[in-house]
Write a structure and sequence with these properties.
Elements (H helix, E strand, L loop, with lengths): L1 H4 L36 H11 L3 H15 L7 E4 L4 H14 L3 E6 L6 H14 L2 E5 L3 H15 L4 H17 L4 E4 L22 H8 L5 H8 L18 H7 L2 E4 L8 H12 L25 H12 L3 H11 L5 H11 L6 H9 L3 H9 L31
Parallel strand pairs: 1-2, 2-3, 4-5
Bound molecules: zinc ion.
The site of zinc ion has 8 residues, from α2.
């Protein structure tokens, strides 16, 4: 089979022999997926629960109470971790317009912020009138972390996952501001937490260790890289979750707005476009135009991330997005299959830039990724199909120029 596919088949064909949810099309290699007797996945089932069983008006009252409980208690009413994507932009907009809080906005710059995103952020901050703290970690450290995480886990985003979730908690302590408000709950996308659980998802250390940090703490990472990298122990501080005792002393609360209001990505994206002039963008490997232009526009390396996911698990962002749209009734299975066929699994132009950062050949890259493939998927590394360059490709930082 492998031989007959080489060079001739389109990448999605390799995923055809995986088992898929009969409803949304997610494959068996999707993280946390389980199928019921009818072949419907647990993520579809918890979505149904979200729509039918959750009492959203009482959830809203709970949120109102939390806001009032913390209002005026710290240097700010709350901390809002902010990437500038649709979810954090909506969260900030909602908090300002519905609750008139005084937030401190925290931006963790992973090093790959794109032009449109920076313009969006500037517009959003000016229109809403907020204080903003932006932090960019040392690029030399970031590159070394990317390489190690890629080799260990087939996921180079460790610095980003851990920084985005740790750094705002450190700031909460420094600014004596106990309430931290995130955007979408993870149960929207995975079953690490379940809408059916009685407990509200807390964005805490348990969650951080359950899936954010890939099972690698900053202490582990130190041991992995200190032999061949001139590491100052403080270099890893931005990626370190604060001590629980310090957070407890603060009486912190770290929650997702989406646990308290029904999260509706399309509606919310439209709202921030109308109210804030927020703009979407093309993403490598995704259908062009407006259909998914609101999704994952934050990172110039998103195409590489999605490509690795495809090589590991036989699905990429197109499958993920169409699954959401099928679940919410915006798309039929047939429309989804067409998009998946046309766009998924192609090699992103940014791979070249990424390999320059890591000083790695594509053969070495493939060898590393091959070790992390999730069976029964078997990727076809010989596929030569390339995704289109996005309009801002020439502005992305090159190591060699
Ligand atoms: Zn499903």
């Amino acid at each position: 089979m492998e031989e007959t596919r080489q060079g001739t088949g389109t990448p999605h064909m390799a995923a055809a022999n995986l088992r898929h949810c009969v409803r949304c099309g997610l494959p068996e290699t999707y993280e946390t997926i389980e199928f019921d007797a009818n072949g419907v996945c647990n993520i579809c089932n918890q979505r149904k629960f979200k729509e039918e069983k959750i009492d959203w008006s009482s959830r809203k009252e709970m949120f109102d109470d939390v806001i009032e409980q913390y209002r005026g208690k710290g240097e700010y009413d709350c901390i809002v971790p902010f990437s500038g994507g649709k979810d954090s932009t909506f969260t900030l907009y909602h908090l300002i317009t519905e609750y008139k809080v005084k937030p401190l906005v925290i931006q963790f710059d992973h090093g790959f912020m794109r032009q449109t995103l920076r313009e969006n952020n500037q517009r959003t901050f000016k229109k809403l009138g907020v204080d903003v703290l932006s932090f960019t970690p040392n690029w030399h450290v970031v590159k070394r972390l990317m390489k190690e995480a890629l080799i260990r886990k087939g996921d180079f985003c460790w610095h980003c996952h851990t920084g985005i979730f740790s750094y705002p908690m450190q700031i909460a302590i420094k600014y004596s501001t106990p309430l931290v408000i995130w955007g979408e709950p993870s149960s929207e996308y995975t079953a690490y937490f379940d809408y059916r659980d009685d407990e509200i998802e807390e964005v805490d250390e348990t969650r951080f260790n359950r899936f954010v940090n890939l099972g690698i703490t900053a202490e582990d990472m130190k041991g992995m890289i200190e032999n061949d990298f001139d590491l100052d122990p403080r270099d890893l501080t931005p990626f370190t979750y604060p001590e629980l005792r310090d957070l407890k002393r603060l009486r912190y609360r770290s929650i997702c707005l989406g646990s308290f209001i029904p999260w509706d990505v399309r509606k919310q994206s439209q709202l921030i476009m109308d109210k804030l002039g927020w703009k979407g963008d093309d993403v490598e490997g995704m259908p062009p135009g407006e259909i998914y232009s609101y999704e994952k526009i934050e990172c110039a390396m998103q195409g590489v991330r999605d490509y690795i996911k495809f090589l590991k698990r036989g699905y990429g962002r197109v499958t993920q997005m169409t699954a959401l749209d099928i679940r919410s009734g915006h798309m039929t299975k047939e429309q989804a299959d067409k998009l998946i066929c046309a766009y998924e699994g192609k090699k992103p132009p940014s791979l070249e830039i990424f390999l320059e950062y890591l000083q790695m050949s594509e053969a070495e890259f493939n060898e590393i990724v091959e070790k992390t493939v999730v069976p029964p998927f078997r990727p076809d590394f010989s596929c030569k199909d390339c995704a289109k360059k996005t309009h801002d490709f020439h502005t992305w930082y090159r190591e060699t120029k």
